[in-house]
Write a sequence for this structure.
């Protein structure tokens, strides 16, 4: 194998696939990045057997071929190459790299035993803008559960039904749902759990411009956009019935300025109990008071912001992290809290936003036995 | 061929139950002496009691007829009919002790009624009784036993070395002495008198006679009166532990008892305060209606049955927990008592600034003395001290004037333990600690090494070893000597501390991301961040959970938990308890439960694990409050900062400030120390900057 390539082609390819590199514990060979050249294209591929990423680039090939290279070594070499054309030549397992006046010789391995890239042949295809899918994932990924034994919650549920795609995630205390309707979506029903890690890569690798195709297969899902393919095993779908979790419309609706609310919560969080992370939101006549107490140290903090609330004084307790993370994911100016009862799940959303909802369960009120 | 055994063989068989070893003989004879109303009992043994045992009392004695009868089996004056067995008020009741003893040893009994001119002598050898004879004798009864088990070689073979048997005898004497502080006990082994305990008016004094005055320094009084029973005594602070249960003394109606129920209740009182496998030092006296107990469980009369076990259990547990609370109040942890404590502290420093050791001891004594007045006046008069602390000079002056006795008087009665003398004494405890410095050279290395240490409250003044050797009326037994050395941490630079006297603490920094270093008024404090924080959280959770359920996060959708069928019932039983911890859990048919809310400090997994683990603990034993503490402990452990967590200065200050507000702060819930202190003085000494 011998090829000439721009150094950006190499670094883009290596960077795209590097997070899919597997752990040597499961299978030493997946610790490598697979590099192959054919028909004027170079392909970088890495897999940890659950997640496979392939990225292609264009270049001038003198001699096609394939090899696998230690991912850590090649990633570092490629990162620090001078801005110049790179020439890579292999002879058996010896790899020569030339770039400007830099020369290196490294050892590769035969690619024979590397798991081959197998594109997903069958499935329901869904076309969506990169920008959109990345936004959907960003706004739902932070509510996935990190608890390993709750693997059914370790990802985002993609639920396609009646040409509507619902992306839902929950960790048991809060739930985020992004729901989009598109007549071009396939009409069959599909329900798939995609692991968090895969979606992180989707957000990271997919360019902001362009369209993505999501192919929902039986056991795998494939994201493709341009010269990038991401294939991931689906998680077992034991996701709770989210329709029943999302509360009906509430009669209490309170609008607040997002950045004021965010800053205020953040200030209070510095003084809330590290154990419970509790903040108390007290709504009263156009005003929201945010209170935190850290019983460990006897510290406490109070802050106030405007809120268009009218009615009896109402006190709700929340884990401040859950509010903060939601507010952080938004760019909108105003947010709305919608609720029925201080014991029932409530909904946060950006004002005017109909596609995205954040359902949050308050903490148990103190008077409730 | 089946036939009835002749009485001498039957007695010998019965003796196997009653008389296991010399200590059993001593026990039976002391019981008889106590029942005879003796005010003085002398116990002398030779070669661990294997060669001879003599118990002399000045009790009521017996008439010649009674003397002849008493060695018969089932002959007793102590009960008349079966009803008496229902409410035994005497130590003995079985009527077989003397018969049993005389069947396995050479036996001689001399007794005289106060009104008689002559006494009676009974001699039995090899179960053959000689005619009672008239002899000269002192009022009371003397029983002499020689060659125990001479005719039962099998039993004799199982006896241990004389030293071991002596220890058993000594333990027996100790128990009785603890139970009857109004009786003068003496004990001699091989002609050497090692115990001389003149009668005293309080149990505290008797405890001090036996174990040294300092023993009460690290103990707090307990007192509880319920309609069913009255309980009093002393328990050691959690920093004072032993690795065995040998220093746990329970007395029921003045009888030493080994009882699992009492033991468990007591240990529950120490739960989360001392490390598993460690035991406190405890003296507990229970007075209960004799009809509520059954002592006729075992011939050794050390086992007991309570008709109302629950009441006994909760009394014991409650008394100990109350004692902690009272103790913390006394330590100034509760606002109303804070003022006096600080004043006392101030006075101490003013009065004797050069001797922090003494002020600490004085203060401790004051503390100890303060609450017993509320709790149990008669128990603690020994440790009662006048409010004004004394300087060393004062003490020395008073001592030389004869107001203060040596700690271990060679001959009874010991003035230092007499309450009337005590009224004039500034403080028996500083007295004790002053003593060795007067006698042994003030420049001796031990003393100098120790002095800065005794600055620390938990430390007992350094004189203990010196006192042991000079002790006439002190137990010579190794096992008990190490009790005297209770909490003797005098050799180490660092000492467990509880921030009592630390003043304002300034955080100096964090060491190894694991220890908080802080500067206090008199030295350096090293705080185990995990242990301290765990304790802090535990106390917070505990306090919070007393008032309201812990902060609880309701779940969007319930998680279901499956239990084994036998667990399901348990879960239902503890639903309320779980609720107070922040778990909303409901039955969901069969042995499945749904969890609707969890403590906000736990993740779903942790919550699930917690319930399951917790259930495992609940299965074993214990009361609801015990479960709850276990549960809170688990919660605290999970939520506390870990060893190796970097902490910011405000966080460290937060932990310290929190600690200063809570009781039991000097140990983590596992019982490990959480705070160590090194005084400036001990550092100076270690660097040889001072000429102590």
């Amino acid at each position: 194998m011998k090829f000439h390539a721009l150094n950006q082609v190499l670094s883009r390819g290596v960077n795209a696939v590097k997070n899919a590199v597997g752990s040597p514990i499961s299978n030493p060979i997946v610790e490598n990045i697979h590099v192959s050249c054919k028909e004027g294209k170079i392909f970088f591929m890495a897999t940890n057997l659950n997640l496979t990423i392939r990225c292609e680039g264009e270049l001038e090939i003198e001699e096609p071929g394939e090899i696998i290279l230690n991912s850590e070594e090649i990633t570092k070499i490629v990162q620090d190459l001078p801005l110049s054309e790179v020439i890579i030549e292999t002879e058996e397992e010896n790899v020569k790299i030339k770039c400007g006046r830099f020369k290196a010789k490294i050892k590769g391995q035969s690619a024979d035993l590397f798991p081959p890239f197998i594109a997903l042949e069958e499935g329901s295809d869904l076309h969506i803008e990169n920008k959109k899918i990345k936004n959907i994932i960003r706004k739902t990924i932070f509510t996935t559960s990190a608890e390993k034994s709750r693997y059914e919650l370790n990802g985002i549920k993609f639920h396609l039904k009646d040409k509507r795609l619902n992306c839902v995630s929950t960790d048991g205390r809060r739930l985020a749902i992004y729901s989009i309707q598109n007549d071009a979506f396939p009409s069959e029903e599909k329900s798939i759990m995609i692991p968090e890690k895969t979606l992180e890569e989707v957000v990271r690798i997919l360019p902001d411009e362009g369209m993505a195709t999501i192919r929902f297969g039986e056991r795998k899902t494939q994201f493709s956009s341009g010269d990038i393919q991401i294939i991931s095993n689906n998680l077992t779908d034991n996701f709770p019935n989210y329709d029943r979790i999302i509360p009906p419309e509430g009669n209490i609706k309170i609008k607040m300025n997002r950045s004021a609310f965010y800053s205020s919560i953040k200030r209070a969080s510095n003084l809330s109990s590290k154990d419970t992370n509790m903040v108390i939101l007290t709504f009263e006549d156009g005003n929201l008071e945010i209170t935190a107490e850290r019983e460990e140290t006897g510290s406490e903090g109070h802050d106030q912001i405007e809120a268009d609330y009218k009615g009896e004084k109402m006190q709700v307790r929340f884990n401040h992290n859950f509010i903060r993370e939601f507010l952080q994911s938004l760019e909108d100016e105003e947010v709305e809290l919608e609720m029925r009862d201080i014991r029932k799940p409530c909904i946060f959303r950006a004002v005017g936003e109909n596609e995205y909802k954040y359902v949050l369960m308050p903490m148990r009120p103190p008077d409730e036995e | 061929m089946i036939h009835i055994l002749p009485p001498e063989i039957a007695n010998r068989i019965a003796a196997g139950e009653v008389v296991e070893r010399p200590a059993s003989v001593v026990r039976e004879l002391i019981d008889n002496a106590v029942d005879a109303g003796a005010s003085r009992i002398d116990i002398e043994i030779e070669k661990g009691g294997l060669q001879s045992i003599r118990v002399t009392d000045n009790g009521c004695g017996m008439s010649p007829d009674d003397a002849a009868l008493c060695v018969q089996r089932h002959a007793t004056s102590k009960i008349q009919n079966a009803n008496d067995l229902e409410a035994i008020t005497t130590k003995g009741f079985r009527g077989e002790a003397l018969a049993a003893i005389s069947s396995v040893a050479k036996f001689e009994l001399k007794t005289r009624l106060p009104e008689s001119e002559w006494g009676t002598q009974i001699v039995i050898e090899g179960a053959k009784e000689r005619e009672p004879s008239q002899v000269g004798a002192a009022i009371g009864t003397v029983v002499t036993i020689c060659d125990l088990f001479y005719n039962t070689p099998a039993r004799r073979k199982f006896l241990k070395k004389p030293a071991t048997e002596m220890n058993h005898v000594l333990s027996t004497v100790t128990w009785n002495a603890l139970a009857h502080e109004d009786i003068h006990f003496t004990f001699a082994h091989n002609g050497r008198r090692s115990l001389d305990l003149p009668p005293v008016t309080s149990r505290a004094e008797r405890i001090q006679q036996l174990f040294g005055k300092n023993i009460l320094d690290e103990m707090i009084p307990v007192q509880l009166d319920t309609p069913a029973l009255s309980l009093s005594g002393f328990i050691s602070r959690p920093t004072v532990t032993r690795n065995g249960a040998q220093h746990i003394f329970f007395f029921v109606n003045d009888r030493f008892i080994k009882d699992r129920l009492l033991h468990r209740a007591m240990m529950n009182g120490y739960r989360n305060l001392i490390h598993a496998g460690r035991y406190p030092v405890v003296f507990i006296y229970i007075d209960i209606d004799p009809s509520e107990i059954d002592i006729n469980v075992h011939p050794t009369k050390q086992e007991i049955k309570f008709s109302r076990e629950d009441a006994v259990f909760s009394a014991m547990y409650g008394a100990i927990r109350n004692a902690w609370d009272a103790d913390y109040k006394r330590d100034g942890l509760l606002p109303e008592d804070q003022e006096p404590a600080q004043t006392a502290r101030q006075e101490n420093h003013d009065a004797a600034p050069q001797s922090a050791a003494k002020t600490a001891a004085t203060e401790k004594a004051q503390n100890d003395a303060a609450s017993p007045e509320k709790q149990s006046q008669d128990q603690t008069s020994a440790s009662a001290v006048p409010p004004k602390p004394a300087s060393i000079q004062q003490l020395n002056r008073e001592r030389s004037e004869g107001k203060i006795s040596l700690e271990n008087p060679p001959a009874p009665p010991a003035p230092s333990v007499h309450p009337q003398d005590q009224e004039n004494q500034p403080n028996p405890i500083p007295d004790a600690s002053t003593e060795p410095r007067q006698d042994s050279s003030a420049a001796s290395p031990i003393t100098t090494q120790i002095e800065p240490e005794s600055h620390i409250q938990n430390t007992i003044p350094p004189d203990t070893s010196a006192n042991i050797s000079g002790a006439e009326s002190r137990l010579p037994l190794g096992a008990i000597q190490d009790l005297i050395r209770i909490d003797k941490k005098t050799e180490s630079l660092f000492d467990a501390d509880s921030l009592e006297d630390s003043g304002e603490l300034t955080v100096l920094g964090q060491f190894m991301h694991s220890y908080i270093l802080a500067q206090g008024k008199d030295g350096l404090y090293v705080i185990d961040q995990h242990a301290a924080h765990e304790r802090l959280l535990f106390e917070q959770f505990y306090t919070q959970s007393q008032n309201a359920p812990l902060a609880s996060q309701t779940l969007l959708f319930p998680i279901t938990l499956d239990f084994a069928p036998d667990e399901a019932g348990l879960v239902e039983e503890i639903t309320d308890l779980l609720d107070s911890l922040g778990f909303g859990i409901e039955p969901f048919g069969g042995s499945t439960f749904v969890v609707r809310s969890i403590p906000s400090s736990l993740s779903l997994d942790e919550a699930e694990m917690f319930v399951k683990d917790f259930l495992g603990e609940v299965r074993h034993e214990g009361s609801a409050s015990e479960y709850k503490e276990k549960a809170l402990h688990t919660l605290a452990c999970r939520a506390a900062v870990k060893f190796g967590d970097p902490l910011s200065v405000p966080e460290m200050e937060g932990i310290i400030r929190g600690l200063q507000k809570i009781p039991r702060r000097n140990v983590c819930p596992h019982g490990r120390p959480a705070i160590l202190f090194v005084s400036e003085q001990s550092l100076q000494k270690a660097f040889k900057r001072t000429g102590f």
About this structure: Residues 309-330 of chain B form the longest helix (22 residues). Chain B has 25 helices and 24 strands. The longest strand of chain B covers residues 552-562. The two ends of chain B are 84 Å apart (CA to CA).
